[in-house]
Amino acid sequence: MADTMQFDLVSPERSLASLQVSAVLIPGADGDMTAMPDHAPVITTLRPGVLRVETPSGTSEYVVSGGFAEINATSLSVLAEKAIPLTEVTRVHIDEMIEDARVAHDAAKEKFKNEPGPVDDAAKLLADMVALGDHINM
Amino acid sequence: MPNLKDLKNRIASVKSTRKITKAMQMVAAAKLRRAQESAEQSRPYTERFNAVMGQLAASVGNSDSAPKLLSGTGSDQVHLLIVMTAERGLCGGFNGNIAKLARVKAQRLIAAGKTVKILTVGKKGRDSLKRDFSDKFVHHVDMSDIKRVAYTDAQAVAKEVLARFDAGEFDVATIFYAKFVNVVTQNPTAQQIIPAAFEAPEDAGASTVYDYEPDEEAILADLLPRGVATQIFAALLENGASEQGARMSAMDNATRNAGEMIDKLTIEFNRSRQAVITNELIEIISGAEAL
Fold this sequence. Notes:
By secondary structure, chain A is an alpha+beta fold.
């Protein structure tokens, strides 16, 4: 069994990371999961959270706002709408993201008065954003 | 024969025009490099995105419950044309070509009895389409304050389009932009984005079977709106590179033409100067002979 796999983190504007990794912790929409080499092929959407990348030489972390991940035995691609290295994240970033989610939530409440689905989705997104802020102590 | 002072002024003014076009060409060249870089950097995302969407669409696409963004509304009566052009002119046929393509398409649709709505991004396209289709305009996105196109700008356009789609305002959306081939060639392109048309993976048989988390339809519902934004973003970036490329070659031509004009004017200037001198000499000589 190979002990590393190819990992790519890309955002629409640029490619953020492309390296060999031993494990990646992914904040999946249905719960966190760790992908290691020879993982079964999975495509999952992401919730806002921290992506932890473990390489043989060290660990790095990124804050992602959403997107999806494509996992297969030899490679892992994460396509994130917005991804920032954890060390560069500031309170301002988080506040901005929470504010966006709040606006979306209010808009959903306004628009879908009697349909809980979209409102709940927006509420979950907002809660995820807030939890993310708490998680990284800001 | 024009007098010497007029010629001198003409030469001076063409020279200053040449200076301006030369400067614009160099600015465009610098901007082109940056625009090309950002277009290239966005490519991995778009490629992977489309690959995954292709797979998903192939597995869900034919079921009845497929999202409307993928399968369409079931009619193609109302068309939304999203025309993306530059905010500025002086870039050769760039804006004109995109507007022309959109105009031809709009006229064909109208002739076929469809309803056409137009959404413009960038001032130049709006100005040139306004003459023929002023009653068809639904919205205009102003990009004049944006120096460098970011993903959030594309998201804003996508949001506008999706809100209209959700409200049932149109059935089919097509974007018009110029694909960057090289500095002298930019191809005006029309691309349908709603209902989404993704290419199925080439070797469908050999491709891996993925597990989906949550299920395929939920992922698709989440990703399709992003797909619209991604395609608009890619088109905006292509457009940005094309605009600078077109401007660069247009300004290169202008500079060269100005140079030729200066040469011609200078020859004319020298000829008339010599004619004046010859005239004076003849006057002096004939004056001396008369004595």
